[in-house]
## 1
Amino acid sequence: MTDIGMIAIGAGLAVFTGVGAGIGMGIATSKAVDAVARQPEASGKINSLLILGLALTESTAIYGFVTALVMIFTMGR
Amino acid sequence: MQTPSAGKLAAIALSLLVGILALLVRRRVALPAAGEAGYAPAKKKRRLFMMLGVLGLWLFSGLVLGLFRVERETLEVTISPARVELLGISTSTSVIVAWIVIAALAVFAILVRVLAIPRFQETPRGLQLVLETAVGAVSDFTKGKFGGRRNEALAAYFFALAALFVGSAFVELLGLRPPTTDLTMTLSYALITFILINYTGIRKKGVRGHLANFAKPNALVTPFKFLSEIAIPISLACRLFGNMLGGMIVVDLVYMALGAFSVGIPAVLGLYFNAFHPLIQFFIFINLSLTFIGEAAE
């Protein structure tokens, strides 16, 4: 296999971190929706907690994305 | 500029005609007052003509601009932006764009201070209301999480950081590469947070107390605690960098896909990617910074 082929496969594998992030964010959103359905007047607080949690969970997916980018752009030559 | 073929010329003329005609017809559809019977269908008709007119004018502008294009470009994304020579030192263009943003913000701040603040009244309206809401939001949030008398400076620093983030993202609408898509820039902001964390820890507990924190509850966890201390600014930097770079790549892809027709649509996208998204990332940034600063202070 050529060098650039391995780099491409490696970069593709690095983005797999998005799977965990997606599942986690889906579960978090479903629990938030449950909580709002149970107590609608707390929806403001739940909303801001949800946004905070989602942005933090997304960071693992972003780490994988950044790793893939660094792989593609700096390992070429 | 290429000379258009006959079909393209006909398309240009047709789209211009359809656009202007639709807008003119829209003016002639009468709109009765809000409560009467013919209001809803008249409004619907007006909206239909407006959409037709805007579509026609958009096609016209796209076709005309397409005559000036040379060839289709490929998508070029680099991790670090281009560097220029400035007085013998090689600086990256992000730094220069950041200076432009800082200069613009400083001029705006001076104008507000000199012209607007002496005219503030008891009940706020207009610009005063916007400024008071923004400053109050950041200040209350900072004091809520890490309260104290000496936190005016901290709240002011975070507001300045918010202005810098949003200003940097706005620059993308002008076609320049925003400074927050450079890993070195975000790493600098994260390093300032790191310095703040340690400074607060040392001020509250002294150097020995702050370092003794690494040996709780047992001296064996010291290397792991050091590692997680180092991971804090790196994770802050990478999160911001990755989000901003992802947004920039999406907008670049839209520009490349639409080609000459990208009039107006990237501006609507820019409303999300360059105003809302940086604000959320800023909110996360200061939330985490304040959490760690508060943790270092106890």
## 2
Amino acid sequence: MRFNWNFDYVKASKYFYTASIILTIVGIICLAVFKLNYGVDFRAGSNVDVKTSINLSKEQIEKVLVDTQLNQKDVHITPGEGRVNIRFPEVLSPTQEATLKGALKGLDAKASPEVNTVDPEIAKELQRNAIYSVLLASLGIIAYVTIRFEWRFAVASIVALLHDAFMVITVFSIFRLEVNLTFIIAVLTIVGYSINDTVVIFDRVRENMRFAKVKNLSDLKTVVNQSIAQTMTRSINTVFTVFIASVCLLIFGSESIRMFSLAMVIGLLFGAYSSIFIASPLWYALKGLNKDVKPNAPKSTV
Amino acid sequence: MKRIITFVAVIVVCIAVMAGTSPTLLSKMKLGLDLKGGFEILYQAQPMVPGGKITKESLNQTAASLEKRANKLGTSEPEVSTEGADRIRLKLAGVKNEDEVRKTIQKPAVLTFRSKDGKEKSADQYNKIELNGTDFTENGATYHIDEFNKYYVVIIKVKDKSKLAEISKRLFGKNLAIYLDETLLSAPTVRAELTDGTASISGEYTREAAQELRDTINLGALPLKLTEKYSQSVGATLGKLSLDQTLRAGIIGSLIILIFMISVYRIPGLVASFTLIVYTWMLIAFFYFAGVTLTLPGIAAFILGIGMAVDANIITDERIKEELRSGKSILSAVKAGSRTSFRTVMDAHVTTFIAAAVMYGLGTGPVKGFAFVLMLDLIVSIITNIFFSRYLLHLLVKANIIKSPKMLGVKESEIRAL
């Protein structure tokens, strides 16, 4: 099957710009007002995840907590199929942890608890570290893309990259999805994917620019639209395969990386979207600023 | 014909090597705590004495003594690493008596100089404590090469001159043993009465041994207190379940990708599927040789790598289809398609590699781990999905195996006449 992907992507881009800008503003407001729904990694406290062979009720766990004097204020107990999650707002001491584990074994001899205790400082530090790393990595990308392509491609690809990372954060903020350390890794993965995806389309734009006789803006637009159309099958097939892998992880993967997989799935879609509807038209806009669009393509390639 | 034989031989050798080594590689794969269970503690070190300073040596020495203790407690392959100026991360797997381990490990290392009290049961046992770690001047121990330029000598310095003088007088000609916790490090003989508060220990030390002894003594003089900043314990069953589920998800995902590639791209899709399998194998082999511990962030980078590897194949195969549709012959379409897509794929890989390298340089903990695996991904991907894939496809085309554009996923009706 072969579709004709010819379409005025550049013209349509104003709607996508609007959509992305609205989403970004919503995201900024959301982040400012609701902040992110930080998981236990970012909050002081202890998170106990217990895998059980029998289903335990909330009452049973509550009784255990009273018996072991671990009934802190605001303890959240979430029972589930074959597992129970208990969240303590105060950090459990090693002795308390052992007491709890012992008491749980009393309820279900096969109970296998996972205890996470965190000083939120560490998670915040990691978050800061991740943000700095991404920003400095962006500088590295700008340098390389400017040398290999030209600065306009570099700027457009960084905008797309930051857009994708921010969109995932926005979606997590709007839907109050839990943000843990693995989320940071997911955002890094999306950054990697986004840049990869954008460079492929830009490479085609660069190639077409070498053979096209661009005299005015409309010629330039044709080049961009054609380049997107030519790489469309590839874009769709690639997104499809990576998407399938992520969805499989989301459906069949373990509980502990569910949020990670979800962030990946959302990020992938945004990554593909931004390469086509944000990055390429943005390059066109930047290039168009240059009043006398040169008759021949710049000698940017070797 | 010769090319067909080469092609078959390459495939057979690859399969044989992969089949032969995979069981070993997989069984030797080091899994992180989030996958196999165990516990991880991040310590913050502080000097025991107020106003004391943490030096790089003292932190490393503390980490080394943590590792020794963890080893003694019978845990399997403890991993200890220092982070920043004052942190130590400890990872232990397969611990049963977790509380006991935590308590023992956190205690600071105790340095003592001992003599015999006559009740010892063996020759290398010393019971009477003569000097404690805190009797030594902070950062007072040094080492230098001896007058024969052969061995190294460690110089120690104590706070109380008279104490050392008394001990050296009493133990003249006898041994003064150096202990860290209950481990005998060295038992030098006292050869002089030491009145100026310093002593030199010569025991045919190599440079490394002298350095280690110096650091041990300095650390003993200024022990670091460790407080738990972060701890995570993962039940082994839960870890195992996570891993099984994640692996199963990965296999299902990969199968769908392979079926998709073959049905859309036919012969090149088949080649791509094969190189993707080689890619996975080679990456695992790289993990083995680079001593990578596989954790969840590592798996994330692995998935991203698979995505980009598939993408590299899709870009090439799409390009070949395009060239075919424009009316080129199969051979020249494959040649032109591989050539033009090569630059695209390389640019995409190099850009991502730069991002990964920066993250590796700046990142800590999981960020660093993720970036490292991503860099490996990209290198292996270039080898298998660009060069190897192209080599196989060219062999097939030159051997005249691919006779119609259909075998490349292009219908005759789509081809434009030149």
